[in-house]
User: Fold this.
Amino acid sequence: MGEASVTTGVDSEMRPCPCCGTEAFHHLKLPHTEVLKCSRADCGLQFASEQLNEEDLSQAYRDVYYPSDGKASTLQFPSTPNDMLRQVFSQLRTRIGEIEGGRLLDYGCGVGNLLAVAREFGFEAEGIEQDPAANQEATNKLGKRTYRNVGELLSLSSAGVFDLVILWNVIEHLREPWSDLRQLRSLLRPGGWLLVSTPNVNSVRGRLQRSGWQQYADPTHFYYFERRSLERVIRSAGFGSIEEWKPRLRHSHHGTLRHLFFRFSYHLGISGGVFYLSRADRSPTNESLPDKSAA
Ligand SMILES: [Zn+2]
Assistant:
């Protein structure tokens, strides 16, 4: 990951969107940073300015995600339950077809929960995790080396070999997500798939709670996406074939009405999460994705 972009905080100076370069304006004030929003109609990226420095970021990760004293964090960010991840893989298989024995890379794999579920679905699953404690836990859980970064992976493996790369609620943590995505694109085989999920800033909670929204409160988040800005960032990394994916994920504790609302919320763009599928192709054309979904 690169260095944080430097902004002066002086209002008279233009503050460009780090993705498209268009002028960005004040959107929200948070205790730890300011949120700016790109003014370009087909971007609208919301981003933290400034980003936490490396030292504060490491401390924030320890406090929020991996508290060493075993105590729960004051902020609650539970990871996606395994039964939800199984729904994701089940529906992904319907959408992109069976990839039996395919190689999967989970970028920002945390303690390896998604990797363990991916194995249940027949993937040869590998992870990249920067946090040393989480990396060790993932390595132990899988009995297989978890890489610290793309460079380490490439020193032991070759590019263009993965069938599927997943960023599961990770892209909002990256300093320059287009840079990471560009690297990851080189790891995909031609025709390989990219799946990106992230919280939706246009969700009901995001709209109603504003600066109190948990995703804004998380100091390890540098970006706050909705459909348009997520698609733009993925496109800026050189992916041509991009489409929103709408998995029907059912929370086990949700009743039918709430489930129906969740399905409807996709149509309004206010679902809690947004999901995008892309393909690495070597042709410069914007070929559309074959639709295998029954939806
Ligand atoms: Zn922009």
User: Anything to note?
Assistant: Residues 17, 19-20, 22, 38, 40, 43, 45 surround zinc ion (CB under 6 Å).
